[in-house]
């Protein structure tokens, strides 16, 4: 089933408690997917890139070699980042298997991402000037606590609660997906894509890599591919309605925008609230109510709809 | 540090925290003769429904106002008695499913599958409704003063659905009987695979579904629409077109399966 949510504040400043808001929204939809929870959160953009790297699956056995393996991968990732031509400004060990690195980098992002991922079992979760993707097993409260998201301030974000149906319950198959190798773009999705393999082969032939077997990852990489060709986020989303087959509703975010797309059958739910200062949307209205405590006007966007809001 | 103990009146949940197994009635309503009112803001779905049933079935209450329903799911489901219920806010998914008899007013919006399998009664929604509104309803009137989502009245078997706004794709999908009155535009696939019934549309139809055709207007159609608009004080009805089943699909011929193979 899965549940998706998004929120964007229109005034554009990064002073909103996006982490806490998203946790409230996702926790209220826990029943739609208790397997894993993920966030794509946006803080004020900086001139440097933030890279989040997953160094091991959270479910990996904590045997005698676990800590040594993670430490070795961590060292190798930092070496590769430097080797790709980036200058490391800061590092943070978010938890025992997630590394966040702030870098000064001015070349092609694909080169940097591929260099990092050439370290076995290292996966770039997100890369951007303001994007940070956090995803792990468990419900929103447990993930928010583990990653200290309550105090995360920003301007917009999306989230996902997953009920695994077609791929494993692990971090690699959890949403959101970063639109590799495009800076600051991420996607959450509810539905099933029936031309997944066709599009995967096509995008792989364009040089894109896939970190999972989850059909939803196609959307992120598809959008990245089109945007790399010069299309705007909104245009790429419109094209996705024609190119992607199946039933889907997805929410996509970039550094300064948040958008939604719904397939031609409108088979997957999405409820939308547009206020003067913010837009909130989710699979269920109860998630919107979790962050707005007064009566509001909401509606379901219709089939084949694409909408985009800027911060 | 140990986890804080749950308050004594907290609902009992299963170990996953997903299913409420508690069956205690909160009994928080203010009862005034046959009327009652309660605030649902801090109550769970199960507590709200238990409170409603306690009032209607055990306390002789015939009119209940529920404040702050908060778009929670499955509220008011399975109420099988003549009564009045006012929800001062929005409902989530599956609200008022399987009801038989109540007269309900919802001040806000409803989520997917509102009034599914409704048998009789009246439900008036002051705002919008999600997809699958009135799925498989068998009787009663369902009035939506805003717009409705996709597949409105899917598998409808009776009753009347009125939307003052637009309706989404596949409206009246597999409809078997009953009526829909849509005052706005409708999306693609109107009346797809419908068996019977009538769909009246005042706005534009994006496309007709399989075996849905424009029907011949009769005085009975005019009488029906004028009557419904008068009952619910909806003003002057606009000009409608009528859509019905064309009955051209294979299930309407008299061919045996073996004969069909020869013919087709």
Helices and strands, with pairings:
The complex is a heterodimer of chains A (311) and B (264).
Chain A: E1 3-9, H1 18-27, E2 36-42, E3 49-54, H2 66-83, E4 87-95, E5 98-104, H3 109-117, E6 123-128, E7 131-137, H4 140-146, E8 156-162, E9 177-178, E10 186-193, H5 196-205, H6 217-228, H7 233-243, E11 246-253, E12 257-262, E13 271-274, E14 278-282, H8 285-289, E15 306-310
Chain B: E1 30-32, E2 35-39, H1 45-58, E3 63-67, E4 84-88, E5 100-106, E6 120-125, E7 141-144, E8 157-163, E9 177-182, E10 198-201, E11 212-214, H2 219-231, E12 241-245, H3 257-263
Parallel strand pairs in B: 2-3, 3-4, 4-5, 5-6, 6-7, 7-8, 8-9, 9-10
Antiparallel strand pairs in B: 1-2, 10-12, 11-12
Give the structure's gist in a few sentences.
Chain A has 311 residues and is α+β, with helices and mostly antiparallel strands. Chain A is built from eight helices and 15 strands. In chain A, the strands form three sheets. In chain A, strands 7-2-8-1-14-13 form a six-stranded antiparallel beta sheet. A five-stranded antiparallel beta sheet of chain A has the order 9-10-11-12-15. Chain A has a four-stranded antiparallel beta sheet with strand order 4-5-3-6, covered by helices on one side.
């Amino acid at each position: 089933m899965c549940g998706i949510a998004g929120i964007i504040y229109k005034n554009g400043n990064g002073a909103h408690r996006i982490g806490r808001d998203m946790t409230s929204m996702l926790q209220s939809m826990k029943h739609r997917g208790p397997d894993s929870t993920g966030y794509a959160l946006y803080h004020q953009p900086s001139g440097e890139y933030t890279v989040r790297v997953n160094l091991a699956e959270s479910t990996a056995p904590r045997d005698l070699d676990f800590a040594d393996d993670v430490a070795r991968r961590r060292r190798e990732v930092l070496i590769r980042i430097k080797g790709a031509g980036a200058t490391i400004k800061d590092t943070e060990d978010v938890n025992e298997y997630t590394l966040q690195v702030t870098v000064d980098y001015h070349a092609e992002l694909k080169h940097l991402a591929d260099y990092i991922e050439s370290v076995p079992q290292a996966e770039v979760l997100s890369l951007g000037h303001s994007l940070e993707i956090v995803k792990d097993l468990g419900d929103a409260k447990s993930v928010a606590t583990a990653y200290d998201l309550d105090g995360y301030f920003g301007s917009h974000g999306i989230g996902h609660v997953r009920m695994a149906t077609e791929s494993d319950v692990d971090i690699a198959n959890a949403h959101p997906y970063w639109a590799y190798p495009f800076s600051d773009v991420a996607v959450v999705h509810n539905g099933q894509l029936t031309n997944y393999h066709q599009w995967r082969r096509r995008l792989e032939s364009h040089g894109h890599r896939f970190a999972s077997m989850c059909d939803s990852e196609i959307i992120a990489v598809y959008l990245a591919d089109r945007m790399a060709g010069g299309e705007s986020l909104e245009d790429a989303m419109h094209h996705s309605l024609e190119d992607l087959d199946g039933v889907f509703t997805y929410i996509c975010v970039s550094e300064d925008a948040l958008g939604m797309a719904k397939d031609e059958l409108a088979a997957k739910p999405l409820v939308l609230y547009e206020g003067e200062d913010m837009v909130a949307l989710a699979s269920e209205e109860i998630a919107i109510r979790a962050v707005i405590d007064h009566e509001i006007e909401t509606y379901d966007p219709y089939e084949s709809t694409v909408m985009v809001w800027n911060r | 540090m140990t986890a804080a103990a749950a308050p004594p009146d907290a609902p009992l949940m299963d170990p996953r925290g997903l299913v409420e197994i508690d069956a205690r009635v909160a009994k928080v309503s203010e009862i005034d003769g046959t009327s009652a009112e309660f605030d649902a803001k801090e109550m769970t779905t199960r507590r709200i429904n238990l409170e409603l049933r306690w009032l209607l079935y055990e306390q002789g209450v015939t009119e209940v106002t529920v404040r702050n329903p908060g778009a929670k799911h499955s509220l008011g489901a399975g109420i099988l008695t003549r009564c009045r219920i006012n929800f001062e806010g929005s409902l989530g998914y599956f609200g008022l499913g399987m009801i038989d008899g109540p007269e309900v007013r919802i001040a806000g919006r409803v989520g997917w599958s509102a009034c599914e399998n409704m048998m009789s009664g009246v439900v008036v929604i002051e705002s919008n409704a999600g997809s699958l509104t009135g799925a498989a309803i068998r009787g009663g009137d369902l009035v939506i003063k805003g717009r409705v989502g996709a597949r409105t009245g899917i598998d409808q078997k009776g009753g009347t659905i009125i939307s003052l706004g637009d309706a989404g794709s596949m409206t009246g999908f597999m409809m078997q009987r009953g009526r829909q009155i849509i005052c706005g535009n409708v999306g693609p696939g109107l009346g797809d695979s419908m068996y019977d019934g009538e769909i009246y549309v005042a706005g534009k139809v994006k496309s007709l579904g399989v075996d849905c055709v424009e029907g011949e207007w009769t005085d009975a159609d005019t009488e029906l629409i004028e009557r419904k608009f008068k009952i619910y004080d909806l003003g002057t009805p606009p000009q409608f077109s009528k859509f019905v089943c064309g009955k051209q699909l294979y299930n309407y011929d008299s061919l045996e399966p073996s004969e069909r193979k020869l013919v087709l």
